[in-house]
Design a protein that fits this description.
single chain; 902 residues; alpha/beta; Barwin-like endoglucanases; three-stranded antiparallel sheet; 34 helices; 11% strand; transcription; rRNA (adenine-N6,N6-)-dimethyltransferase activity; rRNA_Ade_Mease_Trfase_CS; metal ion binding; coiled coil
Amino acid sequence: MEKYRQIKIGIGSEAFEELLKEVNLVEELEKVKNNLKSSSKVHHEKIKFLRSLLDQELKLEWIIMRYLPVIPSGLRPVTKLKEENTIATTQKNNLLQRVILAKKRINEYQKESEGSPSFQNKVKGLLQELSGKDGIMRRHSLGKRVDYSARSVIVPNPNLLLTQIGLPVRMALILYRPFIIQKILKKKIVSTVKEAEKIWLNKGPVVFSLLDKIIQEHPVLANRAPSLHRLSIQGFYPKLTTGNSIELNPLITTPLNADFDGDQIAIHLPLTKKACEEIKERILSSHHLIDPKNGFLIDAPSQDMILGIYYLSKENKQENPIFFDEIAEIASKKEQIQQSEKKIKQIDEHYLQGYYSEEESKQKKIAVWEEYSGARASSENLTQLFAMRGHTTNYLGEIIETPIISSLREGLSPFEFFTSVYGAIKGMTDIALKTAAAGDLTRRLVESSQGLTIIASDCQTSAGKLLKETSELSLVERIYGRYLAQDILDKKTPLLVRNTLLLEKEIEIIQKSKINSAWVRSPATCELADGICQKCYGLDLSKLGETVAIGTAVGIIAAQSLGEPGTQLTMRTFHVGGIAGEEEDITQGLPKVKQVLDNIKPKKEEKAILAKIDGKIISIEEKEIKQVGEETKVYQISEEKIVKVNEGDEVKKGEKITTGKVDLEDYLEIMGRDACQDYIKEEIRNVYSSQGIDINEKHIEIFTRQMLSKVEVIDNGDSDYLIGDIVNYQHLQKVNQSLTASKKKPVAFKNIVLSLKDLASHPDSFLAGISFQNTLKSLVNYSLYQPVDYLRGSKESLIAGQLIPVGTGLVEREKYSKKRLGQNFLFDKNYLHKIVDCCSIDTNSVIIEVGSGYGNLTNLLAETDCQKIIGVEKDSNLFQWLVKNNKSERIIYLKQDALTID
């Protein structure tokens, strides 16, 4: 028994804590590093985990919680009910109360082995309170309650100006109450607030005269929910009305996505002078006449307005009524139907003889009827009225093989009516189900791109995208407002040089020279790691002929440009019904967008086989083919798939050999990074353009950039990275440049495709990350690997109650940075002063740009006359590159871990 006397026996978390205390992290890290045999992902994750614990000076035993976190009392209110004389409280207080009672009970019965009794009823814990739509992060930090607001139904008033909104007097009196009382006291009509309130309650002539003056100085914000894009919130000057409804100029309904069938609008009253100035300068409806997604006029007259203008300007207004039975019939309809039926019989015969599979037979029949009915034409409504309704879809979205031959004018038979009901039901259910799906897509679009802003004038890249004329878009439409990436030559003579902005004059030169392609700068190829430069983005589409300004949130604009029409398309299903054709139904279009942007891997049976090399189809056989030599490729194709090629066909690398969905990762591996970006862009653009929606392709290019913004390290070379690390592509390119210049081994990597969910779940900000999804996992990961948030993005700044670095917020932050030393805040003032002391510089003339890129700091040189600009960089590889490429004496780079305060 002597040898067992030193053994300690313990139970529960205390015993586990003792074991964790005995772990030596330094020794453990050395053991893992020396284990060269293992090179698995788990092995590298372990090294990363141990390094993070040591870097952040975290102890392993801190995993055990010794203290119960208690959130502020404002988030767990207690209310006394007057009627019942009882206290109403939240589940959070009940939880804390039960924990305290359980602790008391444990103290009383400490000797008993059972411990505290378990509770059956589940209550919300701290984690549940943080996460979800109704959690603290999204409900209280991202969504702010507004006190001064109102809501009412909208009605048209064409006599209002574009900048005016009709506000009911009853509503205005309550909204502007504080300002009215202030004016009464200022004019010394009465001396106390109570007396002023009495005058306001009586609503005498004095009150109305003051209200008329106040509304001229205080514009309001009108918001039509759902707020799908920035045009959903606009500023207006109020005009008092006697009714109970809010009056609106009919031209404003398009940007607000409103109509006059019972829609409501919320009115918000800004209180501060600065807020009122911002509305007048930036948010007033007269500043939002152009749609940011395509640069088209959005407040243009439409529908009955154009019909009214036509009628007013018509010379002869004599009415000539046309009766329904006078509408001429299509003479050749019977003959064409007979011809189509003959073709159908022929297809059936070929199917029975074994020429076609069942699926091929079905598709060929559908194609015959579509060819006759003109289902693909733009005049679809007239086709249905006078020719035939054509194919409809069932409740699963599949095309019903038998078409509806009757037109709406002729009337449908009972069987045809029953068949068309499928599509009608589908159209109704899609409104409820698919609108939510499109809304979720919009949220993920915003979450994944909200950090992208314009941060510099030029990244100096020579890369770009080759744009050509297509069947749908001319070259002029595609390149307008972009900067050239390469010179445009005419017989070796440069017509236009690189970095020329393509406006009307330049476009005219290109048209005269009959050039059909051009290399232009693109957000997808911009070399800045933390944003995009002005030249890679080009013109601001919402302003006439203006280059995009520094600080513009182009990521959010791109997300809204794709999300807003996506949501509208789901609603448009209601009008289209169940007519077949992929272009006509967003239930086929929206899943396509989600499939591409979410990088959803197709099932094995749905996956298309792609050609891995350029070549010629030698043979297609039902037996197994053996590969001969390296120049031939053999593809095994299952029976379910339909082969798209024939023997002797020429195929190019990346082309589909079979039908099915393209796996983006396979396409990236075969075609490379640039081709994969172009494929994603074309797939998304085709879905929107098939629905008649014009979206400028630079918005889509922002998402192709984001989806391929990360790479995976497969050989770390002479860098500090670990194999398996997922790092920023632009950062790694700079690190490799530095390593190559120092004659060291560069990092080898492979490109990866990230989904919107991946991008939104792993941003650089921990506040943005934990407020999206998987709160617990995100909290643990960020506390280990990224415990400091520098509040660089809009979302994290909003959560922390800071001005967002966009628009006027960016201007204010820059002003503050010059006064208070630091554009991006450091949480420790001692740390700040240590930087100042080590550089021997004046504290009143410094801007500190924490973790910034080289381009951002050089851009600041032109904007400020400060003595020094200091860049603090955490990444050691990037730090070396920045120091080496620094060409200004006014810029100093410091490594963050060298300045740690004890």
